[in-house]
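Sample A.
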Amino acid sequence: MTISSGRQPLLDALTHLGAHAGRRASHARGYCAVGHFAPHANAAHFADIAILRDGPLPVTVRFSVGGSDPAISEKTRNLRGMAVRVHGEHESYDMVLVSEPIFYAATPVSYLSYLEAQAADPNTGVPDPQRIAAHEQRHPDTLRLPALLASHAAPSSYACTPYHSTHAFLFTGADGVARPARLMAVPEAGTRYLSAAQERQLPSAFLEREMDERLLQGPIRFQLYAQLPAAGDPLDDPSMPWQGQERVPLGALLITALADTSCDFMTFMPTRLPTGIAASDDPMLRARANVYASASLARRR
């Protein structure tokens, strides 16, 4: 299997999984919020960029549930997303983060195979088990994330799960040295998943109300870190968790209010980076950026 551009085949495969006209092909269900980002006092030593010197800066945030169905249950054991745009004076910075430390696949080829294997057989209306088995034999990298998602219940709140970039980026510090890191947003409220009783009893839509009630008590806070790799941690395979434990504090992300639906019309790009942060040579990162750009155009037609 070959992919000429990494763009249209992946978008077509996502669409065939059930994307709805005018809606995102992935993470269709979501809510908008606003707040600000306050850089850590020493963050510019690690990444010498204006956004880490000039804060606090306003942010637009979209919290979401993975999948193409805008009516998907918020209790489903699927990825949660937190897409953040930091509005700098001269540049914007998008952070496209998810609730597990790894992505679905290592490469566009294996991700496309995964999406095709999950598509419903037109004769039965469900995925073909033989096709799934053949895919898993060819691409074992796509087994890691489903196993993580199945290992725990869904988050009890968007405010109670950590978020990860899964991809590595190169951060150039004040000394001119470019250092690889992945991003982590750690919730100050801690990590909490639904109990068995909550999984049974909560309505399928509860996250927006939960956040609204939580915000009555004050801002929702996350600490943003750059996770440094340990020796051997791959810079070009987002399906592999990093073993590196060292973190560099970058600042605090404060969510202060839910917002209108305007962020639904924004396209958060993992490669919309300010000067001083560069994309790594991760083929999946670049493919995702191409897909997001194509999907954004498609849902506006």
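Sample B.
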Amino acid sequence: MDHHVQHAHGSAELDLVSDRRAPSDDSLKFLIVDDHALVRYGLSLALRQRYQDVEIVEAGSLAEAMRKVRSEPGLAAILYDLQMGDSDEYHGLADMLEAAGDVPLIVVSGATDGNVIASCIRAGARGFVHKGCEGGVLDQALPIVLGGGIFAPAPPAPRDGRPVRIALTAAAIPARNESDAVNGLTERQREVLRLLLEGQSNKEIARALGVLEGTIKVHLRTVMQRLGVRNRTQLALATMRAGIKLSS
């Protein structure tokens, strides 16, 4: 069944089945990733106004963000600028999502193209907030994302935060072939895919790579979304059609 972001009590929301409980409002830690110090400052102020006890970690580059996300335990969420100076938009987002694991990531961007928004959500981002929106939109997005849902604004004019139905099917993103999709995976995603195709379970893959099983589920969800498949059988067939050897 196709998933959509749709109208829900004044918010653009998609409810997902998740075993992740929303962190307590009493103590939250956020990572803000943006190469503009003033933007980081503004987002930090907005978070401090919403939450009484909040810890803010900042990163001004993708490289710094990758270090911070691995060295800062207990992150509640990541606010991520799509256009970082030291990375390509989507490859940078993919790398950040992989490093984040099960920490939800909200893209904060000036983009208004519905295809860009849908692409970010399909890649694994849990939310999309336009930089020109009112502060109340962030207030709407955070509880939804921290609660396990997905939040997206209304393109092409999301400044008022009104919701819109955004298809998250393959038709909603630029078309590309399976070979390009497999080649675009990160090294860790390719490693997870290789072990899966060898018949290993999520638990076995997690043990082999020394990570949590939940992290493997995140990787597999991202890989399936990029290849436009819904289960392991379709994933195996798509990889075979791509004609790419994943073994090192």
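B remarks: The two ends are 35 Å apart (CA to CA). Residues 1-25, 155-159, 163-176 have pLDDT under 50 and may be disordered.
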